[in-house]
Amino acid sequence: MRKILLITGTVFVLGLIISIPGKKLARDHVNIKTAVTDHPLLCTNCHLHIHKRSPFAGLDKVNYRSPLNLVVSNDGKLIYVAAQDGNALIVANVEEGKVIHEIEVGNKPHTVILDKSGKKAYISNQWSDNVYVIDLREYRITDTLLTGNGPAGMSLSSDEKFLYVVNSYSSDLTIIDLETGIETKRLTMGNNPTGAALSPDGSDLYVTSRRANIAHYGEPLVSELTVVNDKTKRIKAYMGMESAYLMENVAFTPSGDMAVVTLVRPKNMVPSIQVERGFMMTHGIGIVERKENGRIIQLLTDEPNAYYSDPFDIAITPDGKRAFVSNSGVDCITVIDVDSVRSLIAGSTPEMLKLWPDHLGISSSYVIRRIPTGANPKGLALSPDGRTLFVAERLEDRISVISTDKMETIKTIDLGGPRRITVTRHGRRLLNNAGHTFQNQYSCYTCHPDEHEDGLVYNMASKDMGRNITNTQSLRDISDTPPFKWNGKNQTVFKQDGIRFSTVLTRTEPFSYPELDAISSYIMTGIKYPPNLRFNPSGKLTEAQERGKNIFERTKDNLGNIIPENNRCIFCHPAPYYTNLKQVDVKTLSASDDSILFDTPHLNNIYASAPYLHDGRAISLEEIWTLYGKEDKHGLVGDMTKNQLNDLIEYLKSLRSPDYNDKSSEIHEASIYH
Amino acid sequence: MKMKKIIRNRYFTIAVIFLMAIVSISMIFILRDNNRGEKKDTPVTLAVVHSDSGSNPEQQEHLTGTMGTLPPVPVYGKWRNFTIKDGLPSDKTYCVRIDGERVLVGTHDGLAVYQNGKWSTYTTKDGLAHNGIVSIDVSELTGDVWIGTLGGLSRWSAGKFETFNQFNSGMPNDLVYCVICDGKDVWVATGGGAGHYDTFTKEWEIFTEKNAPMHEPWTYGVSAGDGKIFIAAWGGGVIEYNTRTKQFRDYTDPDGFMEIDLQPDDGVVHDITTATSWADGILWVSTYFGMSRYDGKYWKGYFDHDSGLASNFINFLRAEGPVVFVCSDRGLSSTNGESWVTYKKNDNNENGVAIITNGKEKREIPLSPSIAHNYIIGVDEENGILWVATSKGVSRGELMK
Amino acid sequence: MVLSGICLISCGKKSMEGMIIITVADDKISSTDSITGKSWRYVPGSHLYAIDPGKPGNIPESLTENYFSACSPEISFDGKYMLFAAQKNQGDSWQIWEMNLASRKLSPVTSDTENSFDPAYLPGGRLVFSRTIANDSLKSGHTLFTCNTDGTNLQRITFNPHSYSGSSVLKDGRILTIGRQVFPKESSPEMMVLRPDGTKSELFYKSNDEVELLSRSWETSDGKIIFIESDKNNGIRKRLVSISYNRPLHSIVDLSSGIAGDFCSAFPVDPGRLLVTYRTTENENYSLFNFDPVSRELGDQIYKSPDKSILEAVVVREHERQKKLPSEVDAGVKTGLLFCQNIAITGSSSPDNIYSLSAGDKIEIIGVDSSLGVVNVEKDGSFYLKITADMPFKLKIIDAAGKTLFGPGSWIWLRPNERRGCTGCHEDHETVPANRVALAVKNQPVTVPVHRSRIKEKQVELE
Hints:
By secondary structure, chain B is mainly beta. Chain B is built from two helices and 32 strands. The longest helix of chain C is centred in the N-terminal third of the chain and has 9 residues, at about 1-10. The model of chain C is unreliable at about 1-10 (pLDDT under 50). Classes of the chains: A alpha+beta, B mainly beta, C mainly beta. At the A-C interface, helix 4 and helix 8 of A face strand 32 of C.
């Protein structure tokens, strides 16, 4: 008995001795990671959901479907859905409301279209740089058509002899001769194009662009809507949509007299001092009048105290009366009365049309309903009779079916994804939702489309309102590259997205700790870089890239002089992320910047992050050195020939996420072998 | 400017004295060769209806200069000249390109476009890289217009200008003397080497003395044909690049003399080449010292003293089918390699002549008016219309019927 | 034993979940004074009662019988507490009290010689209320304050010569209140909105006509704001109206059109039901009714007092907590920053309201007692000021000769470290700024008052 008491007492005392300092150590550890002192002490928050290399990492991983775009069969009985995370074309029966077939396709399918007969489907695999041709009678892949980089929106030519494929990453349009299956032309589009639609008369193809033309801060913001002549297969016009970007998709009225795009009007050049009164973002539509001297008009779908962020797709009913816009940031569909829009713009003088794009009240004259949906509504498709609208609820793994007469959801079709919402999935929903911004004015997605960056330079109003303008940074694959922010002031994502984030940016209630854990989990583990299929598909470097690698790693200049270690590329930018995670002065501060060191940026997929330098002053990688590196403080380049600089840049463009170097990795498999 | 460069060469004087002796000897051979040539040739039969020198050429039919079985060299008349008064931004015109219904003229002060009888001008204010435009080509594939300027390369597509220069891209140099489109590829000849831009991959390749058989990076001209790219390189003759094998070979002046072509028809007449043009299996090469023709096996040289060539100082040439149009400092010449038609303007008035040369026989046809000026820098021909860029405006001639 | 004791105390009274708490006043309402609030926001002799709508016959439970007057009840988010304004004894000042609705335990929140009233719960254990300030140098009427529910950490949040009352809190976390200029002359009331730290104060609703706002406003679950205002066509009639939260300035709906009589207050129960206090004629007392805002019909009478008027009614229940907004205010900073993008944009959004900006146009900043200075406007119409915090000022546009071109506008203020932006001058409240770099922010802000020497300011980095 004494022994038992002795052992029990000893265990109790030891427990006390260990637990008291142990808890203090854990508290200190969590305080450092979260930059607050009251975050709950729960080891799984980080070690299960956030640390990529934790032994428990990925234990709760499940495979979601994430429907992005869809199309309806000619008889309206079936829908064909491009499942972005499921890497599948899902076929569902509308009446039965269930999935009847599934075809494995390439990596990250983006868009699916049908030919006129409805017997053939084309699905673009955005991370595989190809399009699959699928026989819908046998549900069989019959051909693989090679495209440019990041195939997204598609359309068939009016005679169905050619396929137009929008290359979202290489910003061009691939034109494929369907008889030979070979790309015959590649036309230059706007920056980061995605949406494509052929006019009802088959004369013109309209292609939207999401990013604005790269320009220096202060220069007008213009995004391009490119028009391609279907007959000549040549570019007919580049239409500039001023002060707008994120034109995700385009649709035509049945008569073809108007083309309508979704868009966002950012305020990146206005000091970010408040959210009230539309000081950060507004959202709406752009209208192109397709006639001689036709106007380009922009109208907001927001309201003075309510914003409908991240408009994605648009569908117009066959009778041309109603347009439906999916607001993916606020989980709703905005219904627009097209005739009201017509009468408004018909009665508007040029001066009024200059005012409407910045007027939050005008939407009440044409927005007739907001229909709630599940999480993150993206692609839209109307049934041939126009009475049913299908909505791809991307982060709900289901399709909602809406009656266009009643303007309400009548049923949903479950695509078979897991019902359980993991912490990471919750974080992805938060990142794509504007609910944590004052009046839902914008989501993380708005400035970080596809979890990347929007290519804009923002006036973040640090200290005085004109100081420290900064280029948006990508959220892709950043977990191993702390600290964060251009000046490296945030040691963790917890701090980056914590209370200060809500005070200066979202200006509403901060994320709760469970929400902060979730969004941190997604940012730290859920966001991958697309494969670098354009510059480094297999890991084998070209001759020019090899020469560039030697320059990147060189220790001597062309004259044989030793280059100081801290002025060699490789010193600050070592593999695998090409950053030493340190702050450094490369003499690129401008007069309006506070005296500060720069966080050394990681370089993987750097080709996709123009413009460059902290304030986006370098339009291209070349300009980093040809215009802004003349002091040789950002690496020694003064001795280089143009050929050598080109080689160095070819090498920089080849850098890719280490995930793709692991041949066994799922992401590598998915991208390279499809 | 390039001539000054030669003269600045401190060996120039010595070379001239040495060469004068050789020239006098070699002239004997040259003349003998020419006589031998005449004997070989069939008798000259001009399709020109012989008429008084005062006759009106517009009344002639099928007015051509021809010889033997070679296709005729057409004669162009009804010249119409355009200057600032007509709407050109500058009289100094450097290049001209016909693009369907419109004509694109590169001037000292911007791009001039002639369409529906009217001129319109585009400058740096519209997004052009530089107002000094020295070369223009149009992509048959996309319809994009590529514009070589003294300050970079511009792509003009559906009204939008996009600029490539040595600072924002991999382009070799901003002095773009020549630009051509070859399928999806765009080639430029610049002061810093030749450049190749792949419009599919959007990547640049640079070719200089570091990675191609050139003496120095300075290149003046580039043309495409037969799966090959022909680069006119300063001091390097012609650099041929095989687009399939990615291999180079060069054609230089075998005798290596700077001032004369010592051994006739032994290769390109001079290493300082100004332009190349390939058509119908023939490569034409211009220099400041004469012109060369290469049929893939044999070279032939042409000079002002032994042919109908207006001058040995040739700025540019362009071959259209069997005929090449040669832009010199003393008029415009055209030839099929044997017979010639050369256009000149009188110094004291707007009139001039078309000189038809077949071997020794010369015929002059008065032109009223003639071309705008004898200093010719650019030329283009399509569907019987000839456009000529001169230092005093641009001229338009019609195929004589 | 301790536990059972606590249980006895807490269970001593039955839960009030679902009960309606009404403010009952003696006799008919005499003419109200919306400036002083007398007989309107605090009514002598008023009392709070709890009635059980499920038991119509029951006698209402008096909740404030130990007070001389009590009104303006407000229920906490969890439905367990109630704030109200009360006068302990006749002649005492009005103060804020909180009641534990389970135990009926009362605790004072404020204790001051001045009147405090119209309390409203804020997220985070705080509340906002109106208070008069003796000899206020800002010449204000009722001023808004916030404090913890135990009365600590008292903060003044309005700093202009206006009188604020009838506050409630919107779901977005901002305070909705009725404001009326009292200096230099009295003006008609406006519904203002501001953040709980006093920043970003702006107009929310104002009738185009000279109408009185006669009740607290409440936000409904379907995005409407309901309140009582005088009828522009019939100055005596008190009508029940609603506006949309999304577009408050252009969405007024008269819910009581076609219903004769007056409304005194309205409280939302659910999207299809309001509690209203209503009387058919001026000679009657207000009684408690159901009201259907969809069909716009008066429903059953819930409670009628034989000799008293029912001024307000709230339902005891748990309800959604509004957003807890972060604060940019830093008490260590002495100034705030004001940026205007283009003074040429004025009034409503119409081309007519964009006057052509002339070189030499300036703005004059006007204080309560004197001009605070004249500042040049940039060529693009922008200006950028650093203004002493918590100080009221107005702006007007003048030309090079000093002639007034536009304004002055309303009294505004900036909180310490507040950064505030305007698209234009007294512009259409529905316009947003153009996306361009304003010339003014390329330079340092102009310090106001302009005669002040350079301010040695604490540097605060926001991003």
